[in-house]
Design a protein that fits this description.
Blueprint (H helix, E strand, L loop, with lengths): L2 E3 L1 H29 L8 H26 E3 L14 E6 L4 E8 L10 E3 L3 H6 L7 E5 L5 E10 L13
Parallel strand pairs: 1-2, 4-5
Antiparallel strand pairs: 3-4, 3-7, 6-7
Helix pairs in contact: 1-2
Length: 166
């Protein structure tokens, strides 16, 4: 499966790869220094340094793999339709609740900041829809719920949204 990402996503991943590669010699040196402390079976500094080096290398590999498999998508959408990076005010009739979300790529999903992936059930239900429409969000075969789009504030892709760390 191809990851649908924007050019900003790709740029942010390349920046992170560069930072992590620049930090790798320091991490390797920490492993070497910790190894010199003695018995490796009881050397917590060594285990910690090795874990940090492995995590750094794994993240580099993950990001490089995502870039290789990425399909760069456009963020353009019609002025009256929900598109990527738009702020959408939603009304949940069942809860009598209003919530504002921002639709983002999967890489920048962060529900704590109301940044919802376009791949999520909610994101899929909203993309391309218009203010005033009530859409059904299908979570699975048994669970779905209605949500009404109250307003759409057009957004743009910028580098203010961080990419997720795993």
């Amino acid at each position: 499966m191809k990851d649908e990402l924007t050019q900003v996503d790709i740029n942010k991943m390349q920046e992170e790869i560069a930072r992590r590669k620049a930090n790798a010699p320091k991490l390797r040196e920490a492993v070497r220094s910790a190894r010199e402390l003695g018995d490796l079976s009881e050397n917590d500094e060594y285990r910690t340094a090795k874990r940090e080096l492995r995590q750094n290398n794994s993240r580099i590999q993950y990001l490089e793999s995502m870039i290789r498999s990425a399909v760069i998508i456009s963020t353009d959408s019609k002025d009256d339709e929900v598109g990527l990076f738009d702020e959408i005010e939603l009304y949940y009739d069942r809860d009598d609740e209003v919530r504002t979300i921002r639709l983002v790529t999967t890489l920048r999903n962060d529900v704590t900041k109301n940044c919802i992936s376009k791949e999520s059930p909610l994101g899929q239900a909203l993309l391309g829809r218009k203010a005033g429409e009530t859409v059904t969000v299908k979570v699975n075969d048994r669970i779905s719920y209605p949500v009404t789009i109250r307003s759409i504030k057009k957004g743009e892709d910028d580098d203010s949204l961080k990419i997720r760390q795993f």
